[in-house]
Amino acid sequence: MKKIALEEHFTTPDMSAYAHGPGSSMNRQRFGQFEQRLLDFGEMRLEAMDEADIDLAVLSVTSPGVQAEPDARLAIRRAQDANDGLARVVAAHPTRYAGFAHLPLQDADVAAGELTRCVEQLGFKGAMINGHTNGRYLDEGMYDPFWERVQALGVPIYLHPRDPYDRPHAYQGHPELLGATWSWTVETASHALRLVFGGVFDRFPKLTLILGHMGETLPYLLWRLDSRSRIQARLSGEKILQRLPSDIIRKNIVVTTTGVCAHPALICALSALGEDSVLFSVDYPYEDCSVAAAFVDSAPINETTRAKICHGNAQRLLRI
Question: Catalytic residue at 81?
Answer without folding.
Answer: no
